[in-house]
Design a protein that fits this description.
- The complex is a heterodimer of chains A (283) and B (191).
- With 283 residues, chain A is mostly helical.
- Helix content of chain A is 64%, strand content 0%.
- In chain A, α5 (80-122) crosses α10 (189-196) and α5 packs antiparallel against α14.
- Chain B has 191 residues and is mostly helical.
- Chain B is globular.
- The chains are: A mainly alpha (283), B mainly alpha (191).
- The interface between A and B is large, with 46 and 60 residues.
């Protein structure tokens, strides 16, 4: 027996015996074998092992292994291809269901956040007045004439224009707004009703600005404010964060939390959906 | 019917077609199980289980080497059995060892005894190998598969197969030295 051959030479010699070496490696090994006696001896020994194993007797199977109907009945034949597609289909349905539930949760979270804003804003004025229908307003409260460019904008928030006049809500948080932070946890029936109209409920805090936009004679009207109240935009939402930063920050805090929660939930849903789809469709 | 037609028929649930495949491959499957497990009775059980598993999963078989696919199922079942042995070792007193019967021409009792001894020596050295090297050595040197086929059966890269075979042969060389007197003259001088 020769001293232990290094691993790479051993692998080369073994592969050489099986005629599994690339031609360049084979040529290099044959060159080495001419001069390296130890390598030659190792090759002979490995060849002897190979020959002994090849001479190992084949074993006669002790019985016939053909299957009987009874053996097959015990094991139901599975058609993996069909099963696989069934599992994939179910998985895809589950993923869609998770996505749908996720979106529903996001919508619910956003609505809850929005209605929280509505409650805060609503608490600064009498609820009954805040949601008076536009057509029920006295004609005298409507602007007599509006500039053509502002008319369409002004028509959308008319309800709030009418509401704003008697209230004169301040641009910065008033003592009443500060008090609104301490409103009871359960809203009054009027406030609860207001929550159903979340779009309308958030707007009373914007009334001074909107009113100013519709009344061209009002002092302090900024161009920025007018631009933001566009006829093509959903008017009840757009000015909410633009008109009164101070009020927005106060009443908007729960909404920011809600948005963050919704974003986090949505990101988690995407991750889960991605993982499910990758598992179902590996390629 | 050729093998492809038999496989298609078996995939459709035709048991007699599958049994024709069993008849073709049962020698190779049983010999692999025997070399991996080292005991005739357990090898028979593993062979039966392998064919039942193959029939159950034949729907997942795709074009390729059907024999290699069968051997892969067999090897995996044998690995499971070996792991079960490690967890719950049994002694020879618990389960009597089954004797293997060799394929051979007519031979006298002395020759038969020598072959049995030789087989025991080879099997003892194979049993001492790590499982992956044992499988590679059996497939290559006893069953005669090439590296590519072994890579398919073992789900390993060609380089890994090459390395396992080389290491297995090196360890077998060291082990078989103890049994030199059992081997024919030409092998004794070379070990």
């Amino acid at each position: 027996m020769t001293p232990r051959t290094d691993d790479s030479l051993l692998e080369q010699l073994s592969a050489y015996l099986d005629d599994a070496l690339p031609s360049d490696e084979r040529a290099a090994l044959e060159t080495r074998l001419r001069t390296d006696a130890a390598a030659r001896q190792a090759l002979v020994e490995l060849g002897a092992v190979q020959s002994i194993l090849r001479a190992a007797p084949q074993i006669v199977p002790p019985r016939d292994f053909r299957l009987t109907a009874a053996q097959v009945r015990r094991t139901r034949v599975v058609r993996p291809a069909r099963v696989l597609w069934a599992v994939r289909g179910l998985g895809a349905l589950a993923a869609l269901l998770i996505l749908a539930v996720g979106f529903y949760s996001i919508v619910q979270t956003s609505q809850r956040a929005a209605s929280t804003n509505g409650i805060v804003a609503q608490a600064t004025q009498p609820p009954a007045l805040a949601f008076q229908p536009t057509n029920a307003l006295p004609p005298s409260t409507k602007p007599a004439s509006l500039p053509p460019t502002v008319t369409a904008t002004a028509l959308i928030p008319q309800t709030f224009v009418a509401q704003a006049a008697p209230i004169q809500a301040p641009a910065s948080p008033s003592p009443s707004l500060q008090a609104a932070r301490n409103i009871p946890a359960s809203p009054t029936p009027a406030i609860a009703a207001a929550q159903l109209q979340s779009g309308a409920a958030v707007l009373p805090t914007q009334q001074p600005t909107t009113s100013a936009a519709s009344d061209s004679a009002a002092p302090g009207l900024s161009a920025t404010t007018v631009q933001k109240v566009s006829p093509t935009e959903p008017a009840p939402q757009a000015p909410r964060f633009a008109a009164s930063p101070a009020a927005s920050n106060e009443s908007g805090a729960p909404s920011v939390d809600g948005d963050k929660a919704a974003e986090t939930l949505f990101a988690l849903l995407l991750i889960v959906l991605n993982a499910i789809l990758r598992a179902l469709f590996p390629r | 019917m050729d093998e492809t037609a038999l496989i298609r028929a078996a995939q459709g649930g035709d048991l007699s077609a599958f049994n024709e495949l069993v008849a073709t491959y049962q020698g190779r499957v049983y010999n692999l199980a025997y070399r991996l497990l080292g005991e005739a009775g357990e090898a028979a059980d593993a062979t039966q289980d392998a064919f039942i598993a193959a029939f159950t999963r034949i729907g997942s078989y795709r074009e390729g080497n059907f024999g290699g696919w069968l051997l892969r199922i067999t090897a995996n079942l044998c690995y499971d059995e070996l792991r079960r042995h490690k967890r719950h070792p049994v002694t020879s007193l618990d389960t009597p060892q089954s004797e293997a019967h060799f394929v051979s021409a007519v031979e006298g009792p002395e020759q038969a005894a020598l072959r049995a001894e030789l087989n025991r020596a080879i099997q003892g050295c194979l049993d001492a190998l790590p499982e992956d090297q044992r499988l590679a050595a059996v497939l290559c040197d006893i069953q005669g598969y090439d590296y590519q086929e072994i890579a398919q059966v073992t789900a390993a890269a060609l380089g890994t197969v090459k390395s396992r075979i080389a290491r297995a042969r090196s360890k077998l060389r060291d082990c078989l030295l103890a049994y030199q007197e059992l081997f024919p003259e030409q092998f004794r001088s070379n070990l």
